[in-house]
Amino acid sequence: FWVIPAVEVKIEVVIPEKERSKEEMSPNGKASPLIYKVNGTARHYHLEEHPIASNPYHNPKDVVEASVCHVKDLENGQMREVDLGCGKALLIKESGEFHAVGHKCPHYGAPLVKGVLSRGRVRCPWHGACFSISTGDIEDFPGLDSLPRFQVKIEKEKVYIRASKQALQTQRRTKMMAKCISLSNYNLSSTNVLIIGAGAAGLVCAETLRQEGFSDRIVMCTMDRHLPYDRPKLSKSMDSHPEQIALRPKEFFCTYDIEVLTEMQVAAVDVKSKIAVFKDGFKMEYNKLLIATGNTPKTLSCKGKEMENVFNIRTPEDANRVVKLATSKNVVIVGASFLGMEVAAYLAERAHSVSLVELEHVPFKKFFGERVGRAVMKMFENNRVKFYMQTEVSELREQEGKLKEVVLKSGKVLRADVCVVGVGAVPATGFLKQSGINIDSKGFIVVNKMMQTNIPGVFAAGDAVTFPLALRNNKKVNVPHWQMAHMHGRIAALNMLAHGTEISTVPYLWTALFGKSIRYAGHGEGFDDVVIQGDLDELKFVAFYTKSDEVVAVASMNYDPIVSKVAEVLAAGRTIRKRDVE
Question: Which strands form 138-140's sheet, in the order they lie side by side?
Fold first, then answer.
């Protein structure tokens, strides 16, 4: 646990100069596809090992050393991007000591010099990932890799950095990991750790176990055809192919003996005998279990919902198909949710027309409040997206088996060649009904701060759980977002190894619309007021969400790194009062 010094809670709002970011473009590293087809009983594979990276300091030709500044050039608490000739580093001075790490966030390449330095770590200005300045290790998410750390020395009042050229160029470092000691001795139908679900939570759990030296068998299973991929990209960058958005290349799973069973659905879990039963009848014994099955999208309940060309976006294939069908055609999107709005923004310049149908009178009302929702709605209308608010779909009509029209309860009939449904989701936990694992009335798995369920040895993580949120006085909440799934997976892994680590992270999320990002930190559920600074019409603002006298969340557009600043203050356990931001 960190000892937290007093943090002066003064939120300074500085509007940055306009900058064009490529943040939503680059996926997490290059990757190649792998499909493990499970046919008959051939469920076990031990592929050839490919070492991922060797020690970057082995080859003296690979090392560069350069004088980067005078010792007095940096004050305590300052960061500077410095050039070593063949690449850049981030130089940091804190408590009289100099540190040097990679200058780009390994997640999407954000310049960390524009981030927030606090309590021995630097927080990314775009999506909130945190890295230790002394080790470069990732401490909060999203993303999987850590920063490379470089040697710093002081000679004659000058600061020198010694670094590997390879590390300067890649700007990322995969933590050291254990391998499985002897896969060949295993019984096919038993594993030490079974992970159900191969999203961010499942993958981070498996990686954390290996990073902590765990050398027994790990099996992940997923209903998906693909290895773990960057799911937020499905609605933000819809024509991405699976290999472009893979979180790790296939060699990674082979090298670290993380087995992935694709297109495998668990039908039931017997917690007494510690057995998972798959839909095809295959059974697997486990010692420790992580359930990270995520959500299942809700479908429409009206006539015609089963028709061709009506989509819930669940897979890269869904997203690719929608783009293909929507090009120069009429698109109707049901639900002005994150998914619906991101899809509308992506298709606006590709489709002939884009219409959005929503029950509320402004999009994002529950999440961002009415004023921010209205400003975002105006931006969409300026980009030719038409809204049909305070209504819902009563019928989908076909012509020759294909979607032709969407009929609204208001009586309006919309032309539609393709329909995307984004009306929320339910936790994918139906298979646990008879298991004895504690599930609440909405279907969420209930866990404690260590991601443990009521059954010893059974953990749960990600979108399908409710957990106690430290930020909101340990209120049990569901936070179905990418960063939180990563952290859940990490905490679950540490506690499978009996570390006794409790979750205390601040939720952080983002959405990308027409090349602009809204960033958000905290948990604003039940906010009763919004304090806005900046200019909503110009989409250059920060919104503080308050409950009684306390700031519980913050959102911004074109105002970096304010959301990361607030996240750091909240992470330090400090309270921000309404009067501090008014």
Answer: 116-118, 121-123, 130-132, 138-140
Closest CA to 130 of 152, 101, 150: 101
Phi, psi of 219 (to 5 degrees): -120, 130
What are 544's two structure tokens? 């503080």
**Where do the H-state alpha helices sit in 410-561?**
482-496
Cross-strand partners of 532: 543
Q: What are phi and psi of 255, to 5 degrees?
A: -60, -40
* CA–CA separation, 332 and 353 (whole Å): 8
What DSSP line would sit under 332-379, residue for residue? EEE--SHHHHHHHHHHTTTBSEEEEEESSSSTTHHHH-HHHHHHHHHH
Could you tell me which CATH number the domain at 310-423 has? 3.50.50.60
The 413-415 sheet, strands edge to edge: 393-399, 402-408, 413-415
Strands laid side by side in the 529-535 sheet: 508-513, 516-522, 550-557, 540-547, 529-535
Fold matches, 190-296+427-497 and 310-423: yes
3-state secondary structure of 384: coil
Rounded CA-CA distance 509/522 in Å is: 9
3 state SS of 175: coil
Question: What mean pLDDT is reported for the chain?
Answer: 90
Question: Which two tokens mark 185?
Answer: 């001795």
Give the model's pLDDT for residue 181. 80
Sign of torsion over alpha carbons 434, 439, 444, 450: negative
Contact 195, 269 (CB under 8 A): no
Name the helix (H) or strand (E) containing 68.
strand 63-70
Q: DSSP class of residue 6?
A: P
Domains of the chain, by residue range, sit at 61-170, 190-296+427-497, 310-423, 515-580
Rounded distance, CA 524 to CA 545, Å? Answer: 6
Residue 210 to residue 205: CA distance in whole angstroms: 9
Tell which residue, 145, 112, 117, has the closest CA to residue 127.
112
Could you tell me which CATH class the domain 61-170 is placed in? mainly beta
Which pLDDT score is estimated for 35? 32
Instruction: Specify the CATH number of the domain 190-296+427-497.
Output: 3.50.50.60
pTM (2 decimals)? 0.90
Per residue in 1-41, pLDDT (tens digit) is 233 333 444 444 444 444 444 444 443 333 333 333 333 33
CATH for 515-580, options being 3.40.50.620, 3.30.390.30, 3.40.720.10, 3.20.20.70 = 3.30.390.30
Measured distance CA(359)–CA(580) in Å, rounded: 35
Torsion angle in degrees (nearest 10) through CA of 163, 166, 172, 175:
-80
